[in-house]
Design a protein that fits this description.
Two copies of one chain form a homodimer.
Chain A lengths: L1 H22 L6 H8 L3 H7 L3 H25 L4 H18 L1 H14 L3 H28 L7 H21 L6 H14 L7
Helix pairs in contact in A: 1-2, 1-4, 4-5, 4-7, 5-7, 5-9, 6-8, 7-8, 8-9
Chain lengths: ~200, ~200
Amino acid sequence: MQQRSEETRRTILDTAEELFIQQGYTATGVAEICEAAGVSKGAFYHHFESKQAVFLVIMEDRLSYINQAMQQVLDDQREVPDALMYLASLGKMIFLAGEKHLSILMEFWEQARHDPESWKAAGAPYERYQQFLALIIRKGVEEGSLREVNPEDVSRLIIAVATGLMLQGVMDKEGEAWGQTVEKYMEILIEGLRRRPQ
Amino acid sequence: MQQRSEETRRTILDTAEELFIQQGYTATGVAEICEAAGVSKGAFYHHFESKQAVFLVIMEDRLSYINQAMQQVLDDQREVPDALMYLASLGKMIFLAGEKHLSILMEFWEQARHDPESWKAAGAPYERYQQFLALIIRKGVEEGSLREVNPEDVSRLIIAVATGLMLQGVMDKEGEAWGQTVEKYMEILIEGLRRRPQ
């Protein structure tokens, strides 16, 4: 029973993701997800409060390896500039793999903007990355590999770069291959954070 | 006659801007702009091809002093890191003055995303800033105030930061006062671009 329930949940998530990618977040309704997934509305609402809740779980799933990578980077022995470059290379992977997801994310943001509750929920992973990055930067300052910067500020700066590149990637499909350049830009930024020889 | 035509154009622009701010870009139609401005549709279409064209002119107007500031910064004798900090302080002003415009810009982007023609038009000022910044960075590398970076890449990095902060500013209204922090983040970035002592 437990297992079947988990299967239903998984089916809803996979079907919704497929529909979001095919036709967009706004254009996809709960009724349509239920029909395509072959589940009742009752089953849907047993597992999820709303379409937005489904979307947030999909994003969490897709981003979960970033959480793991960040934890790993905090724990291991790499110097922080190298750790940051490693995270940037993961960022590049997200861009290359997730172009379609980015587009949905953008749509979701536009909707969430008018709804404080869902914006708050959408902002949670964001906030977590910000705090993670601040821990990593702090470690870098303490170990002496980074110059004396405010970890909170630098963390928000990095998030701003990532957000900006994401937006450009979504918008400017015919422009530069943004995914390819994430690493390059992060390298400039990180190089500028390295401790200078006294 | 020439003067009256210019007045009509100005009235349309001011009225449209007011309506966009009050009720959003999407919710405002050409008919409504005409009615509120007290002009005929004929007069409207004599001056503007579409609602999008009106919006683009409003944005150009609002941003025109950035163009002037950039040209000035290229011409004057300031060292480039100081020039960039000056531009960042202008950026801060935009955030503080233009919160409502940013919100409309976001709506416009979301629409333009589905329409290659208007996205291209919307991207034009963007492209111009990018080229301007690249010229400034190049000057900094040549005068020896900045380290040896690729001007194009750094220029795109700065634009990504600005875009990311803008998006965060639009989205996270209850969060940090983003306008206040633009300068702080740019300072970290610019400090990292300074030439290091050999």
